[in-house]
Amino acid sequence: MVIEPIIKGVVARSAHPYGCEASIQNQIQFAKNASQIKNGPKRVLILGASSGFGLAARIALTFGGSQADTIGVSFERGPSDKGVGTAGWYNNIFFKQEAEKEGRTAVNIIGDAFSQDTRDQVIEAIETYFEGEVDLIIYSLASGMRPNPNTGEAWVSSIKPIGDSVTGATITLENDEWVETQIESATQQEIESTIKVMGGSDWESWVDTLINAESIAEGCKTIAFSYIGSEATFPIYRDGTLGWAKVDLHQASHSLNLKLANFNGSAHATVCKALVTKASVFIPTFTPYIIALYKAMKEDGTHEGCIEQMQRLFSDKLYNHEPIPVDSERLIRMDDWEMKPSVQQRVAELMAQMNASNFKEVGDYQGYKQEFMQLNGFNITNVDYQQDIDIEQLSTLQP
Ligand code: NAI
Q1: How far apart are CA 232 and CA 222, in angstroms?
Q2: I need a labelling partner for 101 at 20 to 30 A (CA). Which of 15, 27, 247, 282 fits?
Q3: Mean pLDDT computed over 94-107
Q4: What are the chain's domains?
């Protein structure tokens, strides 16, 4: 069969396996040719390893100078009678193939990172493949829900403002439509649930589990990803439910930093740049900002994708630099170029002009959509999209 892109709203309902393979290879090529990571970690656990920042971190650490072995946890679906499977499923398969070609160990654990069963599998894999210890733990989960470990009931996150409602435009990727939206303030319960899902408590519980299992190596670091943004996005992000969850994550980084000090290690929340990922397209009223930002940063020559961000994080900030460069709140700022005053001023100018009829010209909507398609293995150069794909044969490939 020939696999076509199918988008519903902002969700991709199909993925192209060989496009995903080519995308992995392109990212590997970037990491190999970039400024290399020096004195990097050798045994890395990545929670949320199959797409976005987690996948890019895995590629950077394996191929960008550190030659790390990795254990990656993700929640992905393989081919079945319901469909071809998710992009992350194929990313796991093809990443592992490429890593093994270079003699690296790459273990994929597919399961719910919030469950005890997945924790047990990870500890066993650390014993089997890493001689019992990890040097770096990357927490890169983006999920809409998390089961309460005590009751089994789900906490569900809500992406909403707190206090005043927010009005703005959401752009649907399915039909490239600008839709004016109003989002009401979150309730107290929605705020609390979002903090449980996207805040720091699961990160902390993972590190506690690994400390208790004696899986932490001397000098072990941990990082989790955050976002702050600018005035244009404060109402929906920093001052809303997601922003409150991120403050909780920043607080968890401080308590984890104290715990890992016992191992001469550290914990940092790392503030990344706004980028198109499977998760970020869900943030309502955020797209006008991202397409203005893409345009401004491309004009400025400083636009980065996930792989560029992660390679720079490990080569310029987290490794080989003592002390690790942080801001006054002990955050690592990978959004430094996004926040440059000249970039933000250009973003404000573009956003002031942008409307339903001109957003494709004023902002970089084409670049945004292109990156979204590429996340799912489409629109990648040198991939034959007319080829007949044998799903049965694909089913024999295991992550
Ligand atoms: P993504 O959707 O591309 O990746 C999320 C990963 O989590 C995937 O590997 C997925 O399989 C995994 N996952 C989700 N639920 C899981 C579960 N229950 N069990 C196991 N694995 C699960 O997301 P993205 O954007 O890379 O997000 C990662 C982190 O980066 C998030 O904390 C996000 O807030 C943060 N971030 C994202 C920015 C953006 O613009 N995309 C900017 C700054 C921070």
Answers
A1: 30
A2: 15
A3: 98
A4: 7-143+195-277+305-336+373-394 (3.40.50.720)
